TrEMBL record:
<dbReference type="InterPro" id="IPR011050">
    <property type="entry name" value="Pectin_lyase_fold/virulence"/>
</dbReference>
<protein>
    <recommendedName>
        <fullName>Pectate lyase domain-containing protein</fullName>
    </recommendedName>
</protein>
<dbReference type="InterPro" id="IPR002022">
    <property type="entry name" value="Pec_lyase"/>
</dbReference>
<keyword id="KW-0456">Lyase</keyword>
<dbReference type="InterPro" id="IPR012334">
    <property type="entry name" value="Pectin_lyas_fold"/>
</dbReference>
<feature type="domain" description="Pectate lyase">
    <location>
        <begin position="1"/>
        <end position="110"/>
    </location>
</feature>
<dbReference type="InterPro" id="IPR045032">
    <property type="entry name" value="PEL"/>
</dbReference>
<dbReference type="GO" id="GO:0030570">
    <property type="term" value="F:pectate lyase activity"/>
</dbReference>
Length: 110
């Protein structure tokens, strides 16, 4: 995913279940809204767009519901998450300006 994006589940019942979660990597200005994320497991990786002109390869997802790497201005709103193998949200590699609001988190499977 590139920056300046909205993942918007309003008006639909959007579920991410039983596979890899969402990766937000080296981008700015992302909104994740009204999703249900559960039963996330470690899974095989793939290509990750981390710049307008670069696609990197991620060998494996680690089982986080939402992984945020080196990103800023991320807003996670009205998201429900449960039963993710590694953790619900992981923000690393100097990620800043992350807001989590109006969300519901339950059961971490560590």
């Amino acid at each position: 995913m590139q920056g300046d994006k909205i993942i918007d589940g309003r008006g639909a019942h959007v579920n991410i279940i039983g596979g890899a979660g969402i990766t937000i990597q080296f981008i700015k200005n992302v909104i994740v809204h009204n999703l249900h994320i559960r039963n996330i497991v470690s899974a095989n990786g793939g290509n990750v767009i981390d710049a307008v002109d670069h696609i990197g390869f991620r060998t494996r997802s680690d089982g986080d519901g939402i992984s945020i790497y080196g990103s800023s201005n991320v807003w996670i709103d009205h998201v429900s998450m449960s039963n993710c193998v590694e953790g619900l949200i992981d923000a690393i590699e100097g990620s800043t300006a992350i807001t989590i609001s109006n969300s519901h988190f339950t059961v971490i499977m560590r």
